Amino acid sequence: MITTQDRLRAAMQAAAGTVPPASAPPLRLPAEPGRPRAGRRWLRAMTPLAAAAAVAGVVIASLALTRGVTSSSGPAESAAQPVALHGVPAFYVALSNAATPAQAVIRATATGAVVATVKPPRPYGTFKFVTGAADDRTFVLAAQRWWPIASGTRGLAAEKRDNTTPVAFFRLRFDPATGTARLTALHVARKIPASSLDGIAVSPDSSRLALALYPAQIEVITLATGSARQWTWPGAAPSTGPWVGNSKPSGQPLSWTANGRTLAFPLTTESGGITWVMLLNLSSPGSSLQSAARRGVSFLGLGHIKPGPVGNALITPDGTRITTITMQLEPSQARVTEFSARTGQPVSPPPPGTTPGTLTPWSVLWADSSGSTLIVNGIRTGPSAATVTGILRRGRFTPLPGAPLATDNVAW
Amino acid sequence: MGARTSRPGSGGGGADGAAGPDAAQAVTALYEAHAVGLIRLAVVMLGDRSAAEDVVQEAFCGLYRRWGQLADPARALGYVRASTLNGCRSELRQRIRAQRRGGPALGAADAASAEQAALLGEEHQRVLNALRRLPERQREALVLRFYLDQTEPEIAAAMGISPGTVKSTTSRGLAALGRLLEAGS
Fold first, then answer.
1. How many CB atoms lie within 10 A of CB A330?
2. Predicted ipTM?
3. Which of A15, A29, A168, A318 gives the lowest tally of CB atoms within 10 Å of its CB?
4. Across the interface, do B112 and A16 touch by the CB < 8 Å criterion?
5. Do the domain assignments include residue A161?
6. Which chain B residue's Cα is nearest to A25?
7. What phi, psi does A363 have (nearest 5°)?
8. Which CATH number covers residue A274?
9. Which residue ranges make up each domain of chain B?
10. How many distinct helices (H) and strands (E) make up chain B?
11. Whole-model pTM?
12. b/e per residue, A79-110, with b = 16+ CB within 10 A?
């Protein structure tokens, strides 16, 4: 006789059996100790705090700059091989809140050495996002008010962020010759609550700034004049979506083509999975995001690929490819996957630069013009398993010493 | 790595009790070894692969944040398993709240569950649906006892109740499950 206990055991084993061996998605560690995960429900439950911050015109902000600071994790590791670094930006900015609030740390790509550290100017307590232009020395930072509400119950410093007052934007210019950095406040007329901002991307020539706004709006600001254009997905609502951005914080959600005509963004559907990478034609008329954007990649119906990317997706600067990480179904494996921006289909056969067997990737942080060289973050498998960030070129992965483990707070 | 700081002699513990590269390496290795097992446990509890993955990710992130506070690294797996169960509990409570409101979160969960159901036979799905209708404590005790094959003292430690309560809860849970299945047949 089959008992209830037998039926229960069999059913639970069957449910467990739907998760194949080695099919766990890559681990995404928090950006920094205490850095919040982007839990929307939590953000919206924050107690409203007053005191909106005003930025009048373009002013030189108060700037705290530290020169020649060595990596706090010890001596810089040996530099990455010069051949791997060819064509890769020499500097990047990572947001660090190892010492809360978050600072912008400028590092050399080859060695990971810290070349300058910039604190958010008062009254902004912490940086929220960073994005880089094509020249590897111009960056834009979003800063927000920081409020010591409480220490947090589970080691989360997130409770200390004021997500209700507007964010402020700053241009960071770094001069490698002198090792100096200059922070300039940018004039953005519209007041954007920190909780509404899901991502930023400065154009390659640093003349425009694109914002991903919750739930489904993209705004592009011309930085010289402050003029802005908005595209909104018709009918998008906070509770039902769709949403612009990743379903989980992982890498930059927005990316530009080099000619500044196209902006790629993920569109997350109501069921919670990113289904499309959309391409916004910035010269198209009107304010409907649905009309102005076309589907770059639809992950549905690809058969061998789980519907939706694992991490973020970037359009290559030449506009020909969309590169992302997908979960292949048989065998179950996370892989760097390139799609044709024209057809939306995976580039087949996989070109050089696809994933070596020792790396489980989960985010693409930077791509060169054609996508043949990438900076990716993932897990190095094997006995010395660890989260790593490095250069991926022609199937060869070169770890970058001192590079951050997290991916939602770094820009090349 | 990065600009992470380490307190001298803290084994990599950071300002919030979280840790640096050593912790990242240890947590990553633990994840590689046990993530699938924990996702399976969460799938049994939730019936939704995507939510199960989220719960397990969050549990490991929690472990990473608190690595510096962990008195005995050998207990890390126990910690992360308890976190996974806590996460499942929270997720199920959220679903119940959403169901009461008739909100959109329910729709999303249902869609994911439907996908899961398609992979299981009708009989198994019926049993799992009935399991998820049980009170929280009974459901958890049954999963720990009959899926993880844990002993009563182990279940007591995991759930923070006495071994005697484990025995009665498991027994009542099985009886209630039987009644639900009978009523549904």
1. 8
2. 0.81
3. A318
4. no
5. yes
6. B53
7. -160, 140
8. 2.120.10.30
9. 7-119, 121-185
10. 8, 0
11. 0.60
12. bbeeebbeebbebbbbbbbbebbbbbbbbbbb
Q: How many residues does chain B have?
A: 185
A388, A369 Cβ separation under 8 angstroms? no
**ω into A349 cis (within 30 of 0):** yes
Residue A9 has which token pair? 């055991």
Which A residues 168-227 touch B at CB under 8 Å?
Answer: none
Q: A109 CB contacts (<8 Å, ≥6 apart)?
A: A80, A85, A88, A89, A90, A91, A92, A400, A403, A412
**Burial of B137 per CB tally in 10 Å (0-12, 13-18, 19+):** middle
B119 close contact with A: CB closer than 8 A: yes
Mutate which of B28, B84, B91 to disrupt the A interface (most A C-beta within 10 Å)?
B28
Q: Is B131 within 8 Å of A11 when comparing Cβ atoms?
A: yes
What pLDDT digit, counting tens, does each position of A221-234 carry? 999 999 999 999 99
Query: Is the minimum CB–CB distance between A159 and chain B shorter than 8 Å?
Result: no
The answer to the question of residue A195 being in a domain is yes
- Number of residues written out for chain A: 412
Choose, out of A7, A27, A379, A407, the residue to mutate when testing the contact with B (most B CBs < 10 Å): A27
Bridge partner residues of A95 (DSSP): A104
Q: What is the pLDDT of residue A122?
A: 84
Which long-range contacts link A4-7 to residues 24+ away (Cβ below 8 Å)?
A: A4/B174, A4/B177, A4/B178, A4/B181, A5/B146, A5/B174, A7/B123, A7/B127, A7/B181
Residue A407 in any domain: the answer is: yes
Of A114, A155, A403, the CB nearest to B17: A155
Separation CA B86–CA A271 (nearest Å)? 23
Q: Which residue of B has its CA nearest to A5?
A: B174
Chain B contact for A114 (CB, 8 A cutoff): yes
Q: For residues A160 and A143, what is the distance between their CA atoms, to the nearest angstrom?
A: 14
Q: Does domain B121-185 bear CATH number 1.10.10.10?
A: yes
How far is C-alpha A400 from the geometric centre of its chain's CA atoms? 18
Inside any domain, residue A12: no
How many structural domains does chain A have? 1
Q: Which residues pair with A146 in a beta bridge?
A: A161
- Domain residues for A35? 26-44+54-411
Q: What is the pLDDT of residues A274-317, one digit of tens each?
A: 678 999 999 999 999 999 999 999 887 777 777 667 678 899 99
The single-letter code of the amino acid at A308 is G
Omega of the bond leading into A285 within 30 degrees of 0 (cis): no
Work out the minimum CA distance from B152 to partner chain A, whole angstroms.
Answer: 16
Best to test chain B binding among A6, A32, A240 (most B CBs inside 10 Å): A32
Regarding predicted confidence, which is higher, B119 or A403?
Answer: A403
